[in-house]
Structures are given as C-alpha cells and as structure tokens.
Amino acid sequence: MTAFSLESLRGGLIVSCQAYAGEPMRNPETMAQVAESAVRGGAVGIRAQGIADVRLIHERVALPQIGLWKDGDGGVFITPTFGHALAVAEAGAEIVAIDGTRRERPDGLTLRQTVERLHAASPALVMADVGSIDDGLAAADAGVDVIGTTLCGYTGERPKTDGPDLEVLAELCRRLTLPVIAEGRVHTPAQASACIDAGAFAVVVGTAITHPATITGWFAEAVAR
C-alpha cells in the first residue's frame, strides 16, 4: 500500500479474513491466501486479526487493511490497549480497529486517550467497534475516524439480531458525519445490500465468505432430514 484514501472503501465490500484459535486455517499464510482470493472477487479492503496476519497481508495485498489484535475472550478484547493498537499500526494496518465501547479498558486509558495517543504515534486511522448507538456517539466524541457496528449483540446492550443490527446502523448513519461501517452477522448478499440501503459507508463480511466450518454447517443442517 502507498497512499491510502478512506474514500476507496466507500460503497464497497471489506472481507474479514480471520480464523478462530485451534482451527486448521489459523495460519498467517492461509489468511494471506484468503485475502488474495478476496481481492480477485472484488473486495475493496481486508480486515485481519493478529500481528503476523496483518503484517503478511500488508506485504501481499495492495488494498487498505483494517487490523486488530484479539487478546482474551471476554469483555474488552478487540485491540484492548494502546500497546496492542500501536503494534497493529506498526504491522502495516491502515486502519486499526479497537474496542470502541464505553467499558473500562485493561490499561486504564479512556477511549479518547487511546485514540489521541495512536493518532500522535501513527498515521493509521482508528475504527471503533461499538455495540450500541450510545457507544457509537461516545466513540465519535472521543475522536475516532470510523465507526463499526461489530459488537452489536455481544455486549449486553442490544439483542443479538438474526443478521446485522440495521436499527443501530441506520441511527448512527443518521446522527453522525463519520463513516459508519456495517459489520456483524452479514450472511447474505441481500443483507449486505440492506446495510448499504441503511446508510453504511461500507460493509464487512467475514464468516459467510471466509469460515468454511460455519458455511459447511449451514449446508449440512439444511440437507439433514
């Protein structure tokens, strides 16, 4: 990647190339190959997890990358500290996704402090993964560059919808001037289209494209009698 423009993501599909711990595909080389395949399919950006994955995809794929670092399995675990965020930026992510909820962060910094420190240390943009309308408004006030609906249904503030939380998405798009990216349980092209109709700047799809175990399970359940 050379110069990066956020506008290059507008109205497009961002493919999340992640594998869960313990899975056969949990390998940076595999995720880089998945990202390269996503490029061929028309993705405008990649979302990836883990320093090794972010670094290798940055080397292989000439698209902007949203990078994150999952540490832990509960509470604030998506790029939970400033140290995590800086490491992701240094690995080559043009956008660093961090937990953008109003919950307490493990390093004791506020979201605003984290964003300010990252902006001072790196040219990377900051994406706040939020779980509610109030999260999104607070994250925008804290100075983030992009809002994502990633955590809707996972923090206890919102019910887990069967598909993307279009209500939160539409309200944030209505109330904010920042780009709002739809992410979370976008499982079909129709749902992705509905996100754009609701005002999404771009749409992230992961499981439905890059998680064979889940996709296989959908089909296996459908044919089982």
Tell me what the structure shows:
Helix content is 39%, strand content 15%. With 225 residues, the chain is an alpha/beta fold. It has a single domain (10-223), classed as Alpha-Beta Barrel (TIM Barrel). Helix 3 links the parallel strand 3 and strand 4 (95-99). It catalyses: an N-acyl-D-glucosamine 6-phosphate = an N-acyl-D-mannosamine 6-phosphate. Its EC number is 5.1.3.9. Converts N-acetylmannosamine-6-phosphate (ManNAc-6-P) to N-acetylglucosamine-6-phosphate (GlcNAc-6-P). Belongs to the NanE family.
What CATH architecture label applies? Alpha-Beta Barrel
Order of helices and strands: EHEHEHEHEHEHEHEHH
Gross morphology is globular
Mean pLDDT: 97
In the residues, how many domains can be counted?
1
Strand content: 15-25%
Q: In what order do the strands lie side by side in the largest sheet?
A: 1-2-3-4-5-6-7-8
Number of continuous helical runs: 9
Share of helical residues: 25-40%
Keywords: Carbohydrate metabolism, Isomerase
Function: Converts N-acetylmannosamine-6-phosphate (ManNAc-6-P) to N-acetylglucosamine-6-phosphate (GlcNAc-6-P).
Pfam family, one: NanE
Protein name: Putative N-acetylmannosamine-6-phosphate 2-epimerase
